[in-house]
Design goal:
243 residues, 7-stranded mixed sheet, 4-stranded antiparallel sheet, 29% helix, globular
């Protein structure tokens, strides 16, 4: 049996959701509000939310009047998201490297660093090419990625975090072009060890990846207020591209 890729296993684990249960969703919704103000989608616009997790942000987009489909590789997350399904709000298990529906979406969002997980760098182009194929003509893609330069410069090597009685031991380091986070913990008498890893992709490399996928990069922003991107100081690398 083929071993699951790390993100398919870890993101589908109940302990992933425990560790990150206190994420700031208010900040995320603030970002989406700013994006909507900038992009000005038509009220009946179709949006594909790639790597939607448990669906919270898809729900937020749907409440604004859009037709939203959320997809994620983690089946447990999609099972949770499906409780929110209704007219014009759907969820499905899907690998972002594959085309979901051709020429079907006005906008595709990939939010909160859901990119660069793959062992094979060519999978990045495969994912971006699938985005291209899934967009309608003149459709828009939004990629929200970390500012790898700043993350590497300010990496916190060791952290201990307790959530719901579980003590997570976290080590961060850079290895072979990946920013890695090793997470060890014991739960219900069993020891666990996971390693998250994200490619440290800088803006110039992003430009090359987008060109290979025939996506036209038209804007870059550096934070959720949509301020200009600065490699030295920005927290995020937010890319707006068109088909």
């Amino acid at each position: 049996m083929k071993k699951k890729e790390w993100f398919a296993e870890w993101f589908d684990s109940e302990y992933y959701h425990i560790l990150y249960k206190n994420r700031d969703f208010t900040e995320a919704e603030f970002f989406i509000d700013n994006l909507i103000d900038f992009l000005k989608p038509e009220k009946d616009a179709s949006i594909l939310d790639l790597a939607c997790g448990a669906g919270r942000h898809s729900v937020f987009l749907h409440k604004k009047g859009y037709n939203v489909t959320g997809v994620d590789l983690a089946a447990n997350s999609i099972d949770t998201a499906k409780q929110y399904e209704q007219e014009n709000l759907l969820f499905d298990v899907h690998d972002m490297r594959e085309v979901y529906h051709s020429n079907a979406y006005d906008y595709i969002f990939s939010m909160f660093t859901s990119f660069g997980y793959f062992n094979d760098a060519e999978d990045n182009v495969k994912m971006l090419s699938s985005v291209n194929s899934s967009l309608k003509e003149s459709g828009v893609f939004v990629l929200d990625f970390m500012n790898a330069h700043k993350v590497i410069k300010n990496l916190v090597p060791d952290e201990v975090k307790e959530v719901d009685g579980i003590i997570f031991h976290i080590k961060r380091f850079v290895d072979d072009g990946f920013i890695k986070k090793n997470i060890r913990f014991t739960a219900e008498g069993e020891d666990y060890n996971y390693t998250e890893k994200v490619q440290g992709i800088f803006l110039e490399e992003m430009k090359s990846l987008f060109e290979k996928a025939n996506l036209n990069m038209i804007h870059t922003f550096g934070d959720y207020k949509l301020n200009e991107f600065n490699e030295q100081t920005s927290d995020r690398l937010i890319i707006i591209a068109s088909k």
